[in-house]
Design a protein that fits this description.
alpha+beta, 5-stranded mixed sheet, single chain, Immunoglobulin-like, 12 strands, 242 residues, 5-stranded antiparallel sheet, 4 helices
């Protein structure tokens, strides 16, 4: 009798059965699987900590501040280096443009054409310089061309056999005209502009060969600013580079 009462009280306390006839039996398999009376029942193994799979990476919530600052400063240094490199490249480009810019004020490329004796060739024929008496003296002076090796007197051109003169490349875009003067300063011929080639040099062609000019003839290069550059040709029948 006491056993029946205890069984009834236990079943009612767990809420599974109302009497002994309705109380389901519990098998050993159900107990091992953690299930009682057909309902989920946690076992001891469910409360143990489960191992972390090897493929799962634990990411720290607070990264190392030293590593973060090192990476940040590295990126800033790379950006600063690139900015400095770009700035230096632009400065070099501007410097090259400034050096190549034409000027007739006596500085820059024009100053290279001035001879060591002040720029005026002794005994050089001034003749017609292309400037008027009202122009400043520094714009109408005649200067001896400084030798750079790119002026060319070619007595016979390959196209027509006549004289062709190649002005120096540093004067390209600044030449107004080219003419040949005799030893006495008289104008003997004027060249016609035919284009820019052969090392970025302006070509001026004449209607006769170089051997038709007397020895000691002078090539006069007239600049757009009013100045002139002169080169003496001692033997006009020969090719001459200056």
């Amino acid at each position: 009798m006491n056993s029946e009462i205890n069984s009834t009280v236990s079943s009612r306390a767990y809420g599974h059965c109302s009497n002994l006839e309705k109380m389901p039996c519990i098998s050993n398999d159900a107990v091992q699987e953690g299930r009682r009376c057909g309902r989920p029942y946690p076992g001891f193994g469910d409360y143990l900590p489960k191992p972390v799979p090897p493929e799962v990476t634990i990411r720290p919530e607070n990264p190392n501040p030293v590593e973060v600052l090192t990476k940040l400063f590295g990126e800033m240094f790379e950006q600063l280096t690139e900015m400095i490199r770009t700035l230096l490249s632009k400065l070099d480009s501007q410097r090259e443009v400034a050096e190549q810019a034409p000027t007739d004020s006596g500085v820059g490329p024009v100053a290279d054409d001035v001879a060591s004796n002040g720029g005026v060739e002794e005994g050089s024929p001034v003749g017609e310089t292309g400037g008027s008496a009202e122009q400043p003296a520094d714009q109408v002076r005649t200067q001896k061309l400084k030798k750079h090796g790119d002026f060319l007197w070619k007595p016979e051109s390959s196209s027509d056999g006549n004289l062709v003169i190649l002005a120096p490349s540093r004067l390209t875009g600044r030449v107004k005209g080219v003419r040949v003067l005799g030893p006495n300063g008289k104008v003997l011929a004027r060249g016609s502009f035919s284009g820019v080639a052969n090392g970025d040099r302006e070509h001026f062609r004449f209607n006769k060969g170089g051997d038709s000019f007397p020895p000691g003839s002078v090539v006069e290069i007239q600049l757009k600013g009013g100045g002139t550059r002169t080169v003496e040709i001692k033997n006009p029948s020969q090719r001459y580079t200056y």
